[in-house]
Structures are given as C-alpha cells and as structure tokens.
Design brief:
Blueprint: H1 6-24, H2 28-47, H3 51-66, H4 70-73, H5 75-87
Helix pairs in contact: 1-2, 1-3, 2-3, 2-5, 3-5
Length: 88
C-alpha cells in the first residue's frame, strides 16, 4: 500500500473527470469510478492503520474539486466526496 501515490492518482482521476465533463457533461460512470476509487484508497489506508492519511486523501480530493470550477462542472462527484468527508 505504501508504494502507491494515492494523491497523484486522485489528482489525475479528478482532472480527467473535469476535462471530460467540460466536453460531454458529467458522466455518471466516471463519477462512480472516481468516487469509488477515492473511497477504496481511503479504506486501504484505514486498514493499514493510516487513518490520518485516509482523511488527508479525502480532503485533497475536496480541495481539488473546490479549486477553480470543478464543483460546478462535476457536482455529483463533489457531493460524493463531501459525503465521504462527512462520514469519516
């Protein structure tokens, strides 16, 4: 688990979701894929006794979505990440 750069992966996933949504509108499949990946990575960190890092990963995702116009372009993804933050 430690050899994965979760922050870089999440950054790329969110950037791609935003770029795609700018062209074709928010895609539910992509939204579920990205949100699921964020949740899965956070869960992997929690299992590895890295709860602070799991929370930091979710906060990183929120910051990326809040930066610029991400929240407006992918509102369902933004809501999913906000829900993860609220439940952790």
């Amino acid at each position: 688990m430690a050899d994965k750069d979760y922050h870089a992966i999440i950054t790329d996933l969110i950037a791609n979701a935003i770029k795609t949504s700018k062209v074709a509108g928010e895609n539910g499949r992509i939204t579920r894929l990205v949100a699921g990946s964020i949740g899965r990575f956070a869960a992997e960190l929690k299992v590895g006794k890295q709860e602070d890092e799991a929370q930091a990963l979710i906060e990183h995702a929120r910051e990326l979505l809040d930066a610029g116009d991400g929240a407006e372009i992918v509102p369902a993804l933004t809501a999913a990440v906000a829900a993860m933050a609220a439940t952790r």
